[in-house]
Design a protein that fits this description.
By secondary structure, this protein is mainly beta. It has one helix at about 5-25; strands spanning about 35-45, 55, 60-70, 75-85, 85-90, 95-115, 115-130, 140-150, 155-170, 175-190. The radius of gyration is 18 Å and the shape is elongated.
Length: about 190
Amino acid sequence: MISTRNHIKQAAIRTSLLVAFASAFVSGPASAQWYVGAGAGAAQAKLSSNGAVQGNDSHEASGKIFGGYQFTPNWGIEGQYVYLGKYDFSTAGGSGSYKPESWGLAATGTVPISNNFYLMGKLGAAFNRLSDSNLGGDNKTDVLAGVGVGYNFNANWGIRAEYENFGKIIKNNNGGDIKGDNWALSVKYSF
């Protein structure tokens, strides 16, 4: 049986691929441009329970910064940093906390839908790690998949709402994996 998290991750990957495929057939203005942005949202970095370690299922406040280059109206590349919040866990011997974060690099596909609205998909690599962890921090690289919708107010300013899945943040030696995802609302500035 596929868990809800795995179902959402698979849907995000499929939608990213669909947006990328569709963007190959849609044209728009022929200007390439750089952009930067920042956003906030709700993240989840759930520690899977293995009997010895119990994590919470809470959503925490997240923050992200990103920048990219739009080669064509439909294709681009984007780098980002996402702080996924602070989470608590407990064991038979006590409790602790962990702070996951992710650096990412992804190809982006953009499809205009009407006026200044567009659909966006991204697919790439997430370079994940735990900082300040009582779990014995670790690093892990996994698939970064995301989907979103955006609106451009003018040639420079816009907003976008998106869902991103970072795969596994770490695989803990005690058998507990931490998987991360994020819902965010961001402001974008193109120049």
